[in-house]
Amino acid sequence: MLKKKHFPTVLITVILFSSVYMSNTDINSAIVHNAHGHSFTPDDHALFIASIDQFHAVSKLVQASITNNNLTLAQGHADKAANLYFQNLMFEIAEKDQKAAEDLSMTVKSLQNITLSASSSSASALPEQQQQVNLLVSDIDTKAGEITTMTIRQQEGGLGFLDPVFGAISSIFGDKKDDGNTKLHSLRVAELVDMVLRNYGNAYAVSFDMTNMSNMAMTDGNSTMSMSSSMTDDNNSDLRMNQMNNMHSSAMIKGGNNMSKNHSPINVAEYQSAQALSAKALEVFNNELKPMTPDNESTVSISNLENGLIQLNHSVRDKASPMDIMMVVHTQIHPNLLEAFSIPLKPGV
Q1: 137 domain-assigned
Q2: Where do the H-state alpha helices sit in 119-163?
Q3: Which of these, 251, 196, 209, 206, lies nearest to 228 by C-alpha position?
Q4: Which ranges in the chain belong to alpha helices (H)?
Q5: Which of 73, 110, 249, 309 could form a disulfide bond with 282, CB atoms 3.0-4.6 angstroms apart?
Q6: How many domains does the chain have?
Q7: pTM (2 decimals)?
């Protein structure tokens, strides 16, 4: 996925594990880049880091579930973490650090095995298993952070793990927060928000792609409001913003009281994943994007973006309808990401 750097002392081709333990659980939440309305130009680094974020978030859910003695949920999250790691991350990590990939593979398998055995163990064995899970998740936390930092430095210019000396100098004097990092983290937020939509869709068994803005419609009796396809054809950001704001107002009117109703998820594990990812998107915004505000002209859109991410967190927490979640993303978060950070849309969408 990521562009490889060619150095004489680095082995480029990595062959890792002749066989990989794969779970038989549902893999609907695997990260896939589909072309859809409001598709931002993809960035492999941003997608990879967001995938690390998702893997880390789901691993933390294993820890939370087993701490609460919900062993079924703990096993479900552990299986999902394994699917995310082995299908989307392992070989990418191996290209950067083969030892880290091998260690993480063992950690993920151990996490699955412990949660699986916990369901059939006696109550007296649970405290020890909880402690083991805590240690494994702590290890994932450390390695996920290292890999994220490594990838950011690689994106900046190939420093970091490939050059310990320059990487150390960079850490002493501080990482440069340049336009490249701004684009990286804004697209990272976009990826995380799309993951929220996918997980929320899985949680409520939504039959359509929630990341596709053209699927967004509000029905009130016999009348239906749909997103106009002209939005993705017009490159004028001001016009796009006005169109989306008008659609948002129209949808609120048509939606009526349905906008405030709570809905119980069908798949609790997927719902919890959506919660964790919406919190992560807000965290990345606060820690990485907000300090990089390009100029004073972006103040309004930055504030609106922050409000949109906060609203997304609240809406997911309150179990809002999938359509309400789409409304927040497609009319508040995406347009303000475009406005604040000038993220290009994919050609032809």
Answers
A1: yes
A2: 126-157
A3: 251
A4: 44-67, 71-84, 90-96, 98-118, 126-157, 164-173, 179-203, 237-255, 268-284, 299-317, 322-328, 334-341
A5: 309
A6: 2
A7: 0.74
**Residue ranges of the chain with per-residue pLDDT less than 50:** 1-37, 158-177, 218-260, 348-349
Q: Is 323 helix (H, G, I), strand (E, B) or coil?
A: helix
pLDDT tens string 232-287: 334 444 444 444 444 444 443 333 334 345 678 999 999 999 999 999 999 999 99
Owning domain of residue 107: 44-176
Residue 184 covered by a domain: no
221 and 111 in a common domain: no
CA dihedral 149, 346, 279, 72 (to 10 degrees): -90
Domain identity same for 74 and 156 = yes
- 153 and 275 together in one domain: no
Within-domain flag for 64: yes
Is 92 within 8 Å of 1 (Cβ atoms)?
yes
The mean predicted confidence, pLDDT, of the chain is: 75
| Integer Cα distance of 51 and 41 in angstroms | 17
List Cβ neighbours of 225 (8 Å cut-off, separation of 6 or more).
Answer: 217, 218, 247, 250, 251, 254
Identify whether residues 51 and 168 lie together within a single domain: yes
